[in-house]
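Why DUF3515 domain-containing protein? Reviewers of the renewal asked for a concrete example.
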Amino acid sequence: MPELQSGAPPRRLIVLAAVLAVALAVGVAVLSIVNRSQPGQPDNGPLALVPVPASQADSPECATLVPALPAQLISNGATLDRREIAEPAPPATVAWGAPDAIVLRCGLDRPPELTQTAQLRVVSGVQWLPVEGQGASTWYVVDRNVYIGLTVPDSAGTGPLQQVSDTVAATLKPVPLRF
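Here is what the prediction returned.
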């Protein structure tokens, strides 16, 4: 009995096309995962930051502190490189790491959470006011001539806070707390 011609491509061609499509999809998925896990790779370019009130960002203290900050921070054993900040970049601001960046801002206005009953923490002789947020916390240096905020994701270890404390202690003199 002769085969009927239906006009459809041969069965082998359909199976081959399906196998190639699946192989291509798997290859793209694997390549995406491998590229995402490469250390030091920027995450979507410069980091965009929203402006916050920082009336002292152009102070001599910030001009001294910012260049003294380390080029890299250690967080949970991972080395985080300084990250480019998108223009217009806020003055006296530095960021490290991706995708969840650690951000330092110098010259901030006094945090409203700083009261006489606020629970402060001392790290390397620097007094910090921790303010918890959703997914990240901001730690404010409150015993220097300028207020400094260090925002760290909840997944970060204590290394960044320690390294920044060491730099603050070495570059800026302590002053009495201002409530």
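Residues 19-42 have pLDDT under 50 and may be disordered. This is the kind of structural detail the renewal will allow us to pursue systematically.
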